[in-house]
Amino acid sequence: MSSTPITITEVQAVKQKTVSGVISFFFRTALIQGIGLATALILSAFLAPEDFGIYGFVTQLIGLLVFFSDVGLAASLVQKPEEPTVIDYRTAFTTQQILSWLIVLLCGGLILIPAVSTKIGSAGTWVLISLALSFPLASLKTIPSIMLERKLDFNRLVLPQIFEQLVFNGILIVLAWKGLGVLAYAYAIIARSITGVIAMTLIQSWPFGWAFDKAALKTLLSYGLKFQLNDFLARIKDQLFFLALGAFLPIRDFGYMQWAKNWSLYPYNLTVQNIMSVTFPTFARLQHDVLLLKKAIEKSIFFISLSIFPILVAMAMLIGPLTVVVEKYHKWQPSVPSFILFALSIGWAAISTPLVNTLNAIGKINESLKLMMIWTVLTWVLTPPLVWWFGFTGVAISAFIISFTSILPVISVKKIVPVAIWPQVKVPLIASSGMALVGWWGQSLWSTNLSWLLLGGVILATCYVGMAFLVGGNQILTEIKSLKTAKAETK
């Protein structure tokens, strides 16, 4: 990576768009995650663990096939230093369409396999079909999304997601309430896909067309295949492994594990995923200036840690009392230990994932591939014996143990960019640790009734804010002021 600085004008443009984009993107996607969390609360009351197990098994199956729908073309177009040509866009679109329809055919073949059809049942089969059809529909959004991402226009990029989630969750809640069970997902998925295509088409047009230029494809694949190999290893580590678990575990136990994992991911999706969506193209633009890239990485980790640590701790401390206080949640009590362990492991991921994202953004795919290989091997080696000894809870135990290897991305990035991690996580870590002690002390109180549970949430939030400002108030105010300054410069 070159250390040649980019121009002052370019720095200001990137900074303004990034900061404005992060703030706007965060609040809009917070709305999406809020809708998703509310839906999860409602579905947890209406759906059985078996329903979550079937849906989880099908989504893991589809998640594995996602690898074949892109071959890294989208990431390659975003990361490409020069502006992609119309031929580049059309070649990527045509390739994705071909791959998407091949996935539809593959899913049709999977339905004919007795082991699959028996495991998921007729309702799960319809969910699988709806997810398969969503691939060619999703490819219609890819090029407009890439164009918005390259322009760092995150304000408009998130709008289709909001419309999609409103439609998806609205239909899902109504149909689940009417007793359709897991079949409700099939209708909601198709409606979401169509809504997203319409919204994205209205927001960002592009010179739609078909092309298959071998030279353009070869250029895109030179980066894209390495990126996709990284994604492939991630899917072996996650989707393929969870598919194997789904085949081994009873569908009810798989439902318990899936419920705990999904719930623990909400803070991650709200903070880490949102910020990474903005920082990937930003880091790619700053890859030629080490000092600016260092500042951008550190700022990202600080705000991710400041926001995700307290959310994870609060959820870990209140999930047990929630399953005691709310009668319809009694059935989820076996999932509580798994949820807490998943939440703690995600705390580590909140630091490591942005750093792996940095390696990808600056073209150091080989480094991230090595890390992914290590995590894939550890997952496949550690989890089976732990599942054998502890049942489905062994999955969460394994995730917690493996999360401590998150120090490896820190070492890898430090070789390229001299980032300082501890100053960014110190304040959130100390404040959330104090918050955890208060939460643990009040477990019996939060489990008394709903009023005490809600009061517990308020007490924990107050505790975190108070301790954070006591330990590092100056740092927090300085960082917030820098965001306000950058945002004001965009007006």
Structure at a glance:
Helices cover 84% and strands 0% of the residues.
How would you characterize the overall build of this protein?
The model has no long low-confidence stretch (mean pLDDT 84). The chain has a domain at 47-248. It has 18 helices and no strands. 84% of the residues lie in helices and 0% in strands. The longest helix is centred in the C-terminal third of the chain and has 40 residues, at 450-489. The two termini are 33 Å apart. With 491 residues, it is mainly α.
> Could you report the average pLDDT, rounded to the nearest whole number?
84
Q: Per the principal axes of the C-alpha atoms, what is the gross shape?
A: globular
Order of helices and strands: HHHHHHHHHHHHHHHHHH
Portion in strands? under 5%
Number of helices, counting only DSSP H or I runs of 4 residues or more = 18
Number of strands: 0
What is the SS-derived class?
A: mainly alpha
Radius of gyration: 22 Å
Helix content: over 70%
End-to-end C-alpha gap: 33 Å
Question: How is the biggest beta sheet arranged?
Answer: none
The residue ranges in which pLDDT falls below 50 over 5 or more consecutive positions are none
